[in-house]
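User: What would this chain look like folded?
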Amino acid sequence: MADFKTHLSVAGTLSGVLAVGCLQTGLAEPKDALLFFTLGAVGGILPDIDSDHSIPVNILFSCLATLAAFFSVFSKIGAYSIVESIILWVAVFVIVRYPVFELFKRSTVHRGVFHSLLAAVFFCFLSATLLHDVFALPSALAWLSSCFIVFGYLIHLLLDELYSVDMMGIRLKKSFGTALKPISFTYLKASIALIIATLALYFFVPELASFIQVVGDVKLYDVLRNNLLPQDGWFGF
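Assistant: Here's the prediction, encoded as structure tokens.
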């Protein structure tokens, strides 16, 4: 399978290209394009969170622990003293970063449920919900941002499958088929749990109508067609 640097560089590069396209068609402002690029790169390493010793899972849980700690303090603004708030921040960070992380490692297997299309849908719903409810992004922008998470996620799965093909020996490695799969039948109980979690998340996702209206606008594709290639020479020449 591809290594961390390959996943990050390929997903980041392709997400950057797609983000520039969104910028040029008016789908995104500069700050949005930067967000799209970042989320695409994150999506490119996200499937490896089930690897006990991978860089992505350590980064992910450090970020989750930090966010959880801050949101805990935000929810108690004015209720606690400065010292109490600091103690709360540290306590939440330590709990999420270590005991919760250890529990996650013990309950997951590399190339299990997170290397599947089902997991991509789960993270699509999760990211859209968090971006809308926690970070107050408009519904259409939250969905478009979550699409970049999925885009990077699918690039990761596809790269893993491509690296499972030995082009020199024209043969398939044992790992072939373990990444780009609808669900994990090997770990069926975990897949069922993820299906339930995905269905539950669906009831909390932001409304889709505005997103569908944006991406379904005929004017968008007119702009894309008219601006895809230069009309009067390349780079002004």
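The chain has two domains: 4-50+111-232, 52-109. If you want, I can go into more detail on any region.
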